[in-house]
Amino acid sequence: MLRYCDFTDMASVAPALAGAERMYFMPMNHPPGVVDEAAVKSQVIAEAKVAGIRYCVYQSFIAAAGGAPDDDDFATENALKAS
Fold first, then answer.
1. Could you tell me the mean pLDDT of each successive run of 10 residues in the chain, 83 residues long?
2. pTM of the full predicted structure?
3. What are phi and psi of 17, to 5 degrees?
4. What are the distances in angstroms from CA 51 to CA 21, 33, 55, 63, 80?
């Protein structure tokens, strides 16, 4: 089953994850400064953990693992590893 949520409407995240065990996490594409992407992505990861998501594929950026700590993809990959 495929479900969608809107990361600019965090109330849509929990219902989309309810009962799921896998998640394909596609990053947002907002102009810089419009949305704090690292904070939103961290919140989505926390929601996924609460929902019982066991597997997550994150569409990241090439070499994000070696990126700067303030890069949102770097932060997201580390948050996923920690979860």
1. 85 94 84 79 92 89 62 78 85
2. 0.79
3. -90, -15
4. 8, 29, 12, 29, 14
